[in-house]
Amino acid sequence: MAQTRVPPEIWSHVAQQVPQPEQTKLLEVSRLFHDIALDLVFSAVKVYFLGGEKALNVLNTYDNHDFAEEVVRKLMTRSWEILRRITQDPSFSRAVKSLTVVGFNDGMSIFEQSKLCLADALDSLPYLRTFRWYVPSHEVMQRFTDIRRLDLTTPFFYPDDEEAHDSSVLDEELLSAIDPTHFNHLLNSTNIDSLHSLTLDWQCLSGIPVRILSNLKELSVCITTECDPLGLDLLFHHALQLESLTFYGFIGPEAFPSFIADPSSLPSLHSFRFSCDDDTMHLSPDPEILNIFFKFIRERTNLRRLYLRIPSLNLLHECDYHIRLLETLKHLEVFGFHTGYTAVDTQFLQSFCQHLPKRLKAFHLAMEWCGDPLLFLIDYLADLRHLTFVHLYSRFGRLPLLLVDVASEIPGVEMVGLNRALWNVDRSGGELELKKWPRWKIKFSTEEDFLCEDDYWLFQYN
Question: Looking at residue 339, what DSSP letter applies?
């Protein structure tokens, strides 16, 4: 009997079900599986240009130069190999859909030497759809033809992965690289009419052409200066297709009155993040202003992802704002909450957990906690049967819980985070295994690194 040949499309679907960390093994199975796995493993690539003291900062090590040199050599070697293969192997270049560039080194000499090679690689990527630029440089490679996601440099530099550094870390070199004039030139000199997702600094917001703003579905804005109400007005009246909106950084009380409660403004919004830094939100906004802001959120009844950080709210007296949100937003599946200056107690945390939506899939909680072990919190989360991602953060010190308890007691969890560290939960063997991410992967993590887009959305900027 002749053997039935399985179509490649079927094998491709099978390969997509293989856990992400194991997909690289498919490259060695056969020529067919190599071609299928190529699209999976190398659809998103990162290149690093690291060196000097800046590399120590990126790797969170200031006294282990041998470790830093070894990691930098490994990352740089692999980066050169990726760039060379992009320019020399058309089948490989066709597989790459997402490119992330990370450049931190003293004097930027390494990056200057590699710009031509990077430019050639960009010219060789016919299906590039996502470009992320984490480089303290005014120059962004302007060779886009059909880009759909563009993440530009923002000045916040994530702190150590395990230690609690609650305030934002502002990198002056990154801040100086923000140039609204150059940004306007970038938008007007490249063919990015297909752009649907954009990350940028607030200073550049007013320079976005209305034709691009009206097409955006995702927008993340880093606030480094006082919010101009005109910029927010432009956003709320022209970005009518937005599905995801993020504000993070040095947000002050002046931003709150600009939020429009009318559901006809941003009618498609399903994801909203509002994350204020301590330095600019040390005083609680007036109750009238807060009511306007929370009404804006409550009127977006289709929200399925929400993150809130307003440090100055006294949650022991003003927790009704958040409780009402949880009761109103019936579709909420992804929720992150920062308790701010309030040192929460057991009574507050128990009341808060009782209102968590039962359909929650991803949860982030950052708080100042000085109480007993948090076993009761794990018990609450264990009742959320759809929960696959849990990220807990302590404003000071360490939370009194064991990582293995979180992973073992919450049956469906696939990834756990503690402060800025992340672990994949592997249940495939006889015993549960926690696999920690390397530091550089955490600090410059991208959507493609995560098992689920929701997990990345919740983890980023925290």
Answer: E
Question: How many degrees, rounded to 5, is the angle at CA 386 between CA 384 and CA 389?
Answer: 90
Q: CA 13, CA 6: separation in Å to the nearest integer?
A: 12
Q: How far is CA 131 from CA 43, 147, 192, 203, in A?
A: 12, 7, 12, 20
Contacting residues for 438 by C-beta, under 8 A, at least 6 apart: none
Give the integer Cα–Cα distance in Å for 47 and 32: 27
Report the alpha-carbon distance of residue 300 to residue 293 in Å, rounded: 12
| Gyration radius (Cα) of the chain, Å | 23
Q: Can you read off the two tokens belonging to residue 405? A: 């308890």
418: part of which helix (H) or strand (E)? strand 415-418
Q: How does pLDDT run across 160-186, given as a tens digit for each residue?
A: 555 555 666 777 778 887 888 888 777
| Rounded distance between C-alpha atoms, residue 164 and residue 191, angstroms | 42
Cβ(51)–Cβ(110) under 8 Å?
yes
CA distance 296 to 162: 35
In tens, the pLDDT along 193-236 reads 788 999 999 888 887 888 888 899 999 999 988 777 767 888 88
Alpha-helical runs (H) found in 329-414: 346-354, 375-382, 403-409
Question: 269 and 299 in contact (C-beta within 8 Å)?
Answer: no
Q: Any residues with CB less than 8 A from the CB of 129 and at least 6 apart, and which? A: 97, 98, 146, 147, 148, 149
Going by the DSSP 8-state scheme, the letter that residue 273 receives in this structure is E
Q: What angle do CA 165, 168, 171 make, to 5 degrees?
A: 115
One-letter identity of residue 362: A
Helix (H, G, I), strand (E, B) or coil at 276: strand
Determine the Cα–Cα distance for residues 187 and 182; give it in Å rounded to an integer: 9
Burial of 412 (0-12, 13-18, 19+ CB in 10 A): middle
Q: Which of 101, 219, 223 is nearest to 155 (CA)?
A: 223
Q: Which amino acid is at 188?
A: N
Residues 48-85: pLDDT tens digits?
A: 988 877 777 777 766 677 888 888 899 989 999 899 98
